Amino acid sequence: MTELKIGAIASGSGSNLESIIKSCKTGILKNKASVEILICNKIGAFCMERAKNHNIPYELIESNKYLHLPREDYDKKMIEVFRKYSCELIVLVGYMRLVSGMFIEAFNGNVMNIHPALLPSFKGMHAHRDVLDYGVKVSGCTVHFVDNQSDHGPIIIQKCVPVYDTDNEDTLGSRVLEWEHKIFPKAIELFCNKRLQIKERLVIIDGEFDL
Ligand code: GAR
């Protein structure tokens, strides 16, 4: 079986990137997938260190320099890089920007994102803060296919975690992150094994799976 070539985009620490890299090297994605390249849009972001430590190539394409231009101009640069590495699946691992419809089409819709809340609740950049402000008793994380709206495409896997009265953004964030590191590799594995079928908003998963 040929390995699925993954391209990753990150803006920050890159712990989800690292969990996917490790799953490819020694975990559930071994011999099934490999991370070929990381694109980072933020100067100084730690995700690039993590890529370097795992001998994964990375490119910094600073989105700040494209702010006055249409989003497609930035996305064309990313498409060029991902095509150079023959990437078949793109994973957004803490990428704090939208991608264009053109970008999604360039990869036939094979673009996944992770969000640190139970979508469609608590979209946006400050999910944990919003969860705590609202006072909900459960939160969680979501892996979904990306469409042209923010935190919106068809949902692949969700996992719940409790929210405690004593939580702050850090304690809740790390409880959620632990599960993020499991559900994203699992969603990729289901994709590799061709067990995902999209029917409008619904992702039908062939068979059962464990996390
Ligand atoms: C993760 O919690 C991810 O779900 C979130 O950013 C964090 C990145 O952490 N993504 C979003 O909020 C996207 N809207 P990481 O850099 O350690 O993987």
Outline the secondary-structure elements.
Layout: E1 4-10, H1 15-26, E2 33-40, H2 47-53, E3 58-60, H3 71-84, E4 89-92, H4 101-106, E5 111-115, H5 127-134, E6 138-145, E7 155-162, H6 169-192, E8 196-199, E9 202-205
Parallel strand pairs: 1-2, 1-4, 2-3, 4-5
Antiparallel strand pairs: 5-6, 6-7, 8-9
Helix pairs in contact: 1-6
Glycinamide ribonucleotide is lined by residues 10, 12-16, 93-94, 114-116, 151, 177, 180.
Descriptive account of the structure:
With 211 residues, the protein is an alpha/beta fold. The protein has a single domain (4-205), classed as Formyl transferase, N-terminal domain (Rossmann fold), CATH 3.40.50.170. The chain has six helices and nine strands. The chain has helices at 15-26, 47-53, 71-84, 101-106, 127-134, 169-192; strands at residues 4-10, 33-40, 58-60, 89-92, 111-115, 138-145, 155-162, 196-199, 202-205. The chain has a seven-stranded mixed beta sheet with strand order 3-2-1-4-5-6-7, sandwiched between helices. It has a two-stranded antiparallel ribbon with strand order 8-9. Helix 1 (15-26) runs parallel beside helix 6. The chain is globular, with a radius of gyration of 16 Å. The two termini are 23 Å apart. The mean pLDDT is 97. Bound molecules: glycinamide ribonucleotide (GAR).
CATH architectural type:
3-Layer(aba) Sandwich
Largest sheet: 7 strands, mixed
Q: Which runs of at least 5 residues are low in confidence (pLDDT < 50)? A: none
The percentage helix is 25-40%
Q: How many distinct folded domains? A: 1
Q: Strand fraction band? A: 15-25%
Radius of gyration, CA atoms, in whole angstroms: 16 Å
Write down the overall geometry. globular
> Structural class given helices, strands, pairing?
alpha/beta
What's the number of extended β-strand segments? Answer: 9
Specify the CATH class: Alpha Beta
State the CATH topology: Rossmann fold
Strand order of the largest sheet: 3-2-1-4-5-6-7
- By CATH, the superfamily comes out as Formyl transferase, N-terminal domain
State the distance separating the first and last CA atoms: 23 Å
Taken in chain order, the helices and strands follow as EHEHEHEHEHEEHEE
